[in-house]
Design goal:
The structure is a single chain. The chain has helices spanning 2-6, 14-22, 30-65, 76-110, 128-139, 144-169, 172-176, 183-223, 228-239, 242-263, 300-311, 320-329, 341-358, and strands at residues 269-272, 277-282, 292-298, 316-318. It has 359 residues and is mainly α. It folds into two domains: 8-235, no CATH class; 245-358, secretion proteins EscU (name from scop, 3-Layer(aba) Sandwich). A hairpin with a 4-residue loop joins β1 (269-272) and β2. α3 packs antiparallel against α4 (76-110) and α3 packs antiparallel against α8. The chain starts with a helix and ends with a helix.
Length: 359
């Protein structure tokens, strides 16, 4: 029984998932992120290729058009500064946009997550025992997770390399025909082959990234599974301890009963069964258009209502059908239904006439 209860067989609840997310523990796929970032980088290169080519060509023309045979070794920075400026013009827009797109890709993968626990220093992680344990897991070739990651790495290299090779192999005849062609034509053919190779490799990386994302989601859901006892404890924590709830309910019922009993002295009449049921009725035109049930009870509670009514000179009228009907159909502080108007009106009329005669 103990081992069975300790097994994590239950799917994580929404509350558990939310807590894990708050701690920064989320499912993420580095392969999928890398594939999407590579696609973004290739797309940016396609957009900036023309501008980069023109800038590089201009830099080369200026360099070879103004060759100075006399180079001052003390002014190397002054000589190289124009080249750095040109390189910055080429690289900076590309890098800034790539960083922004990378952040967007990671955000899309893991969602909005901000966890203070992830940036808190954990001194137990730098303890010798912890470091030795991590080192053993890292260099142990038979550790299950290491084996899986190693196999994944080999598989990714083989598949992505095969896709890149297939693009080159399919254009083998074009490569062999480059001999003797003009340089611009050769460069166009080589660029076309490289584009096909990059597209094939990006598609392979996207497929592998998608599979890795599914695997990481499976591993994550498995890691946050709960035991039956954890689910029970969480449910108890949400709903409250049954004993505490029962005690609170008992106190609430006691308070409601006291409030109900305090309304009996101001009632106009108490209708009884005569012993099992007792219903106190009050008619106040300013509060309701019809008489209201201000107190009701059975057995011992009915006895208490009758005793309080006697102590406060509230008339008690025996009418079994009306007492039962009022008790079963009218809630506390509720207005009597229209089908009981006549019966209750007769009882109230009898009470009012008895008071008038006594006075």
């Amino acid at each position: 029984m103990g081992n069975e209860a300790a097994e994590k067989t239950e799917e994580a609840t929404e509350r558990r998932k939310r807590k894990e997310r708050e701690r920064g523990n989320v499912s993420k796929s580095q392969d999928m992120d890398a594939a999407l970032i590579m696609v973004c980088a290739c797309a940016l290169l396609a957009v900036f290729a023309k501008h980069m080519g023109q800038t590089i060509l201009q830099m080369m023309r200026e360099t070879f058009s103004h060759l100075n045979p006399y180079i001052d070794p003390n002014n190397i920075l002054g000589i190289m500064l124009p080249f750095f400026q040109k390189l910055a013009i080429i690289v900076l827009p590309f890098m800034v946009l790539l960083v922004i797109l990378s952040i967007a890709v990671i955000r899309m993968d893991v969602g909005p997550v901000f966890s203070v626990e992830k940036i808190k220093p954990k001194f137990e992680n730098i303890s010798p025992r912890k470091m030795m344990g991590n080192a053993k897991r890292l260099f142990n070739p038979f550790e299950p997770r290491s084996l899986v990651e190693f196999a994944k790495s080999i598989l990714k290299i083989v598949i992505v390399g095969a896709c890149g090779y297939s693009a080159i192999n399919s254009r083998k005849s074009d490569l062999l025909g480059l001999v003797g062609l003009e340089i611009p034509v050769s460069l166009n053919i080589i660029a076309s082959i490289l584009i096909n190779m990059i597209i094939n490799m990006c598609l392979a990386m996207l497929v592998l990234g998608y599979l890795d994302k599914k695997y990481q989601q499976y591993e994550y859901n498995k890691s946050i599974k709960m035991t039956k006892q954890e689910v029970k404890d969480e449910q108890k924590d949400i709903e409250g301890d049954p004993k505490t709830k029962a005690r609170i309910k008992s106190i609430q019922m006691q308070m409601a009963r006291q409030r109900m009993m305090s309304s009996v002295p101001s009632a106009d009449v108490v209708v009884t069964n005569p012993t099992h049921y007792a219903v106190a009725i009050k008619y106040d035109k300013t509060k309701a258009p019809a008489p209201m049930v201000v107190a009701k009870g059975v057995d011992y509670l009915a006895f208490q209502i009758r005793e309080i009514a006697k102590e406060n000179n509230v008339p008690i009228v025996e009418n079994r059908p009306v007492a039962r009907a009022l008790y079963n159909t009218v809630p506390l502080d509720g207005v009597i239904p229209s089908d009981l108007y006549v019966a209750v009106a007769e009882i109230l009329a009898f009470v009012y006439n008895s008071r008038r005669d006594n006075n």
